[in-house]
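Thread title: Can someone regenerate the structure for this chain?

I was given the following input by a collaborator and told the matching structure tokens would be attached. They weren't. Posting the sequence so someone can regenerate them.
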Amino acid sequence: MIYKDVEFFDICELKENENGGRSLLRFPSKNIEKMFSEYSASCCKGAELRFVSDSERLELTVSADDDAPARLIVYRGDYYIKTVPLRAKEKTTAVLESPERFGWVEKESLVRKRFSPDVWRVFIDSGLASFHSLDSFGGTVRPPRPDEIPEKKWLAYGSSITCGESAFLHTSSYIQQAAYRLGVDVLNKGCSGACASETVTADFFSGEDWDFITLEMGVNMRNVITPEEFEKRSVYMIDSMLKSHPGKKVFVISILPNHAIRTAVNSVYKPDHIAFNDILTRLCETRYRSTDAVLIKGEELLPDFCGLTADLIHPSDYGHMQIGERLAGIINSCGAV
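Best answer:
Regenerated them for you:
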């Protein structure tokens, strides 16, 4: 969405709040109260503020509205500039200065992978956050043009793994790693601890604009719902995506390897882990066999168990990179981009 000549990418609503700013919401507020976790759905991790300006210096003021500190990750085009810490429950003003060495080289030397180097991209690497202002000191500010950003858009739904948990920076997450390799934009619709495939979520995705979608489902529903309910929700989700976006690929990602499947003791998660993966496999091999739904098994993406952090469920930076590279290869081979 566009607000004050800034594109708020991966944000569908800016909601006025008591701190004088506008909360950044990745899901509509009318949907959030119907989702499994209002907090997780309200988080804006991975969203970007994008704009082009002729000013050499700008000041962006945002606030981290969680109790924990957060950060901004600043890019110009595909080029990383810096990380700016955000103090918990306080406003922070980030100074954005045009990279000096951009002016030292011929413009064509600034190779573009996905984005024009003229585009400021400020990632929100936080939970809850608010936008307050952008001061260009008299310079012009405008949203990026279509020719300055990737042509195709990917919607990524899933758990905290899709949200980028345990990656050192959100830009190291598997969805960002894959998007870079594919040359596409990616909407982060991961819901940490709360990927429950609700009907309201499926209906929201049906109305969104995307060229392909990934559905990393199951891990947050183990020991919460029955296999029968998981199958019902999965069918509704996949059916909705196929019907609303005919001819576009729907990639179904089964639960990635984690402690539950290799446990040496009785685990409350293991039966559902096996059952849910079996359900997704069966559905894709039968009900969706001749459709645009494509099953990607979690072990295909993360064959190295050491790609996990010590919690044995979230990938490390190495794991995220491995998943991103393998996922990009599969998506590319299926002709989705």
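Residues 227-244 form the longest helix (18 residues).
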